[in-house]
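Structure first, sequence second, as always.
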């Protein structure tokens, strides 16, 4: 058996299967002495869509059997390899179709355990003793100076006892001492509620209501909650469970005496490591070198003030210079910093490591203090510095000044971020700092704009300025790349919107995120970022940008079931477009109002707007939007019982979208045609329309609408006497609704139960 066949025999997941395809593609290129086949070349040779090919190679989708066979033959697999790969494909597909154990509402949010954790036996014992009493909610407040290891202790202990909390573990970094504002507990509660299985539409809007819902859900459950980096007791208090069985660990630089006095928290004060614990930590990090030079090790420990963070940074410096004696290394930490204040020593260690960096790494380190977080890629760091960043980031990681948290992504401790921010303002001029911020935001804006248009080709694009000199936006090839980029940069982009100083960056960055947030169920986040965008557009007096933002806010309200609020936002957008004499914008606003009135149960009002939208799009000559308008008119006629007019408009829409290549609009039109055929009793034709629509939406990764269409397909299969087809479609729909935490999941479960 060759090595590829052996790897195929071990493959159990879609990711592993995709890795085998990529490996096969590389082998073929090496054997033929040419470059690897691109996705576009494979799509051309097979006649498949580019997005489908990308999904097969990234593991997003497992190729159907016939396509998989064609693909591996195209990539030059031998007969034996074809057999092994086909078996692997069938095994992976079967595993993916097998119903998974339900994990909904059981969060597992703890960060990875701390590597090489040492000491703290007294603190660990104190925490163990606290949870021995299960008659009340157990709250522990772990306090201590910065860099003393509070987070490491809390996370390590949480992993030790996680098995005792069968209903899950919640974790939140409250950023109490970060350069930006601490996290609002109102936002943390929303995240916790979603993690506990609450649908986005059901998350209460008010802070008190969210806290009450949180306590209600946790009542009778055993959940461990870790609240990291709290600033005040008030930031923590809304996040405390109300009934016995749960435990909460809070870390803070403050003693949180209010939490102790009022809420019964048990204080666990962390001091610096004992000399013996510090020595054990150095041994773990440097091995025999410590015992070979015990005096030098003791000096290094003393000058690092026995702070774990400082010791790890010093050890990283030592590990990078294995030939240097610890005596010489310890001497580099000057005795000028050998004082009683731990923070003075910590600053000394930071300075010691910083001054040893190459100029390029030192400059990048201080500029990273401007990044909004939570992490940064090589590409974004290169734009920030206007210089290649891969080597400087590797140097910073080797010095433990940043950590590579996943492949190609780097983050650093709040203390180091603050130190970097300080050095940036000391060593860079105001114009240099402004230029760096501009490059960073331009990097995210221009990459985001390309990603947004690849993700949604029919979007009406915005006009942005040229990127600042030195900015190197990422080159995304296709929709698969765009989705991957948005997924990876999701939280960075949210932070960039919040922290952008220029109003233009604020609303334009929010615009790039709109469709990604909408289609992936992040509707409360959408409302938050678009509220910032709307305020920015009003300050700019940019009415076109305001209308776009009102539409985005309205879409989120529609998804959350707030149809009247959505209608009002769409109406604001329409008024602004009328002021601008923007016929295309007016038409889109009318189309959106059509959808809102349909949801409100007022189809005749919706028809008026749909007909206005159709006339405006015809006048503007926008074929894609004209098709959408025909589809909207047709769907409402079907609701009103006029199937003839409904069919005429929807068939016109389908011809337009197919002639001009608009797959998302084609899927929407096929869904409408399925509805019309089902009303007329032509169930086979309806099933065909729904299947085609679902396949298109799957290729576009439009999860929400795919689930809606699958639900329609299942109902039609049931009506046609095909319970197996109905069951299969409902199972797929259920998986998506659960993934998006949508309330429709309950209805689908009921339908599946009724089939049995």
């Amino acid at each position: 058996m060759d090595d590829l066949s052996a790897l195929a025999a071990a493959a159990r997941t879609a990711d592993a299967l995709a890795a085998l395809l990529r490996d096969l593609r590389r082998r073929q290129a090496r054997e033929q002495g040419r470059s690897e086949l691109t996705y576009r070349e494979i799509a051309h040779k097979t006649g498949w869509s580019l997005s489908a090919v990308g999904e097969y190679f990234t593991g997003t989708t497992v190729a159907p059997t016939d396509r998989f066979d064609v693909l591996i033959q195209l990539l030059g697999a031998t007969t034996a390899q074809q057999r092994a790969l086909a078996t692997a494909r069938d095994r992976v597909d079967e595993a993916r179709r097998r119903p998974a154990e339900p994990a909904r509402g059981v969060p597992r949010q703890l960060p990875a355990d701390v590597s090489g954790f040492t000491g703290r036996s007294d603190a660990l014992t104190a925490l163990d003793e606290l949870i021995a009493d299960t008659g009340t909610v157990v709250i522990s407040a772990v306090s201590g100076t910065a860099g003393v290891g509070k987070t490491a202790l809390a996370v390590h202990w949480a992993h030790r006892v996680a098995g005792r909390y069968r209903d899950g573990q919640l974790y939140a970094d409250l950023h109490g001492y970060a350069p930006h504002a601490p996290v609002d507990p109102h936002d943390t509660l929303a995240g916790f509620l979603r993690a506990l299985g609450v649908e986005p539409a059901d998350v209460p809007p008010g802070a008190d209501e969210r806290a009450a819902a949180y306590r209600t859900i946790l009542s009778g459950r055993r959940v461990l909650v870790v609240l990291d980096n709290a600033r005040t007791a008030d930031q923590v208090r809304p996040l405390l469970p109300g009934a016995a069985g749960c435990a909460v660990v809070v870390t803070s630089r403050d003693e949180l005496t209010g939490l102790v006095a009022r809420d019964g928290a048990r204080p666990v004060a962390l001091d610096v490591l004992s000399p013996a614990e510090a020595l054990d930590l150095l041994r773990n990090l440097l091995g025999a070198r410590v015992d070979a030079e015990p005096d030098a090790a003791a000096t290094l420990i003393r000058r690092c003030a026995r702070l774990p963070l400082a010791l790890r940074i010093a050890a990283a410096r030592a590990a990078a210079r294995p030939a240097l004696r610890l005596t010489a290394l310890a001497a580099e930490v000057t005795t000028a910093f050998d004082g009683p204040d731990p923070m003075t020593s910590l600053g000394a260690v930071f300075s010691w490591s910083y001054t040893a960096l190459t100029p390029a790494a030192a400059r990048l380190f201080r500029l990273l203090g401007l990044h909004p977080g939570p992490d940064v890629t090589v590409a974004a760091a290169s734009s920030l510095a206007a210089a290649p960043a891969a080597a400087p980031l590797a140097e910073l990681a080797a010095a433990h000044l940043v950590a590579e948290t996943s492949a190609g992504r780097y983050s650093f401790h709040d203390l180091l971020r603050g130190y970097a921010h300080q050095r940036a303002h000391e060593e860079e001029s105001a114009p240099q700092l402004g230029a760096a911020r501009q490059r960073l935001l331009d990097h995210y804006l221009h990459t985001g704009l390309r990603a947004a248009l690849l993700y949604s080709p029919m979007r009406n694009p915005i006009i942005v300025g040229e990127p600042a000199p030195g900015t190197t936006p990422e080159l995304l090839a296709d929709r698969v790349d765009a989705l991957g980029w948005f997924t990876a940069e999701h939280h960075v982009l949210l932070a960039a919107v919040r922290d952008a100083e220029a109003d233009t960056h604020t609303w334009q960055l929010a615009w790039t995120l709109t469709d990604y947030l909408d289609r992936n169920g992040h509707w409360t986040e959408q409302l938050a970022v678009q509220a910032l965008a709307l305020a920015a557009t009003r300050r700019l007096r940019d009415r076109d940008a305001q209308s776009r933002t009102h539409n985005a806010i309205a879409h989120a309200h529609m998804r959350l079931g707030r149809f009247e609020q959505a209608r009002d936002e769409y109406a604001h957008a329409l008024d602004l477009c009328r002021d601008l004499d923007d016929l295309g914008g007016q038409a889109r606003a009318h189309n959106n109002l059509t959808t809102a009135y349909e949801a409100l149960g007022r189809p005749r009002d919706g028809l008026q707007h749909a007909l206005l939208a159709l006339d405006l799009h015809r006048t503007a000559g926008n074929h894609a939007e004209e098709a959408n308008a025909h589809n909207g008119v047709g769907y409402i006629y079907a609701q009103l019982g006029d199937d003839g007019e409904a069919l005429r408009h929807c068939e016109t829409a389908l011809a337009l979208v197919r002639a001009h290549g608009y797959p998302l609009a084609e899927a929407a039109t096929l869904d409408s045609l399925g509805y019309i055929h089902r009303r007329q009793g032509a169930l086979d034709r309806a099933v065909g329309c729904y299947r085609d629509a679902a396949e298109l939406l799957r290729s576009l990764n439009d999860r929400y609408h795919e689930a809606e269409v699958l639900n329609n397909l299942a109902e039609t299969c049931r009506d046609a006497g095909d319970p197996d087809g109905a069951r299969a479609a409902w199972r797929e729909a259920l998986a998506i609704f659960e993934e998006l935490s949508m309330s429709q999941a309950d209805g689908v479960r009921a339908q599946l139960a009724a089939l049995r």
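Margin note: The chain has six domains: 3-97, 121-269, 275-355, 359-428, 436-571, 616-624+635-755.
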